[in-house]
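subagent[fold] <- orchestrator: predict structure for attached chain, return tokens only, no commentary.
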Amino acid sequence: MYKLPLVNIFQKPYEIWSYREATQGELNNTTDYGLIMHGVKEKLKYAIKNHYEAAEYILTVGADNGLEGFIDDFLSNSEDFKNMRRLMPQQISKSFKDYQQHYPKYDRNQLLLDIDNINRTLSEGQILFHGGLWFNDQLSQICTTEPLSTSFCPQVALRNAEWGGKAYDRGRIDLFVLRAKSPKTKVFVYRQKGTRMGNEKEVLFNSGATLILRKKYLIRDDFTVGKGFPTSSKKISVYLLEIDII
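subagent[fold] -> orchestrator:
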């Protein structure tokens, strides 16, 4: 098996600023579109320096497209991510497309075989996100029997947990922060650009991954989720889970 490059999306912190309205003088002397649209940076409110802070932040605020854009830009310019993608097959099999675009209508056995044949694992310490529900509250360690979809972006993982009314039905969201620990499970890294669902920023684990729950934090118990049309809504609890994945 071959290790993929380590991709750290928070090499540079993601900053959230408060803004003030630009003065007429400032507007007259700038060609900065951002200054016209957003105003002048006034005060640094947050500096998100790691994945755990990012997960807590997105569960607290619910949505921040600036954060997702920050991660998109990082991946677009990261040599480590480009090298990670170069180690994937240039022509991918139908099973990968079907899993991403037509789930749950895909050939499970072919997908598992295709991931296995790529023969790549993450590097030690790689961190990714998954939104859903911990498999069994009585267990702190499980072994997956199905592929596990993860993302470089916590907002994408959170939206996936909500999609189709899943969070409404379950009554809870667990946002996994998955850290590769002595990784053995093979993975496939999807393209970010030139594909219909590149916004997912997805990394797919083969079945047989061992997940070890290290810590669990309640972030809030009043997170609003919805289902159906017209939409029914309710408030649920959301948790941050620190997990080692092998």
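orchestrator: received. Logging for downstream: The mean pLDDT is 93. The CA atoms of residues 48 and 54 lie 6 Å apart.
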